[in-house]
Write a structure and sequence with these properties.
Strand order of the largest sheet: 4-1-5-6-13-12-11-8-9
Order of helices and strands: EEEHEHEHEHEEHEEEEEH
Distance between the termini: 15 Å
Helix content: 25-40%
CATH topology: Rossmann fold
CATH architecture: 3-Layer(aba) Sandwich
Strand content: 25-35%
Radius of gyration: 16 Å
């Protein structure tokens, strides 16, 4: 088994100034199913030293906390944005594969100067997606899949750094997955760790991106 560096949600403990980090325990179980073990990385860690010491197989940017541009000035979102932007930078420099899930996909898009917009009917639901042929995830999922959804914001556009890999079949063509051109970086808006049981296609996706 190989290590995967995993980012965490930031929370303010009620009634105090204490900032806590949190990670759904299902992530460890999911990554283990994929053949990896998870190493949560603290937001105040020396990221370069952390990654140099552990030589991870990949980086995972998880959900939770809206990104700063849509969070109405939430300082925790800003702190997490800065931290995860640093992880993306290192991933690019060292050619470490990166997967972004939900908020993780949004911060990847934001890193490449893509904006978000408000979306509706994408919280606590399942819906079908259409997958673009010739993209990376098409190799695993085929033309269509049904995924979960837990987000209030979506990508508003793409640019020359990003391609659309999947869209929601909702009449609005909401972007559900992206891939970065020339980099081992993908973003998905669904949560593989929240499926019960875990979906075989999601497991295969993580195996393929982190082992390629």
């Amino acid at each position: 088994m190989f290590p995967i560096i995993v980012s965490q949600k930031l929370l303010m403990r009620q009634g105090t100034n204490e900032v806590q980090e949190a990670l759904d325990i299902k992530w460890a179980a999911f990554l283990q199913e994929c053949g990896f073990f998870s190493i949560p990385i603290p937001v105040n860690a020396d990221t370069d030293a952390f990654i140099k010491y552990l030589t991870p197989k990949g980086i995972l940017l998880t959900g939770g906390n809206d990104i700063y541009s849509v969070s109405k000035g939430d300082r925790l979102s800003k702190k997490r944005d800065q931290f995860e932007n640093g992880l993306i930078r290192i991933g690019l420099e060292q050619k470490i594969p990166i997967v972004g899930v939900c908020r993780g996909m949004q911060i990847i898009a934001n890193y490449f100067q893509v904006q978000l917009k408000k979306c509706h009917d994408h919280v606590n639901t399942m819906h079908p997606i259409s997958i673009v042929q010739d993209c990376f995830i098409h190799q695993i999922y085929g033309n269509t899949a049904t995924v979960n959804s837990y987000h209030n914001f979506c990508i508003n556009e793409i640019n020359e750094n990003i391609i659309v890999a999947a869209k929601c079949i909702d009449g609005k063509n909401t972007i559900e997955a992206i891939e970065c051109i020339n980099y081992k970086i993908i973003g998905i808006m669904w949560h593989p760790e929240r499926m019960d049981p875990f979906a075989e296609q999601d497991i295969n996706l993580f195996k393929k991106i982190y082992n390629q």
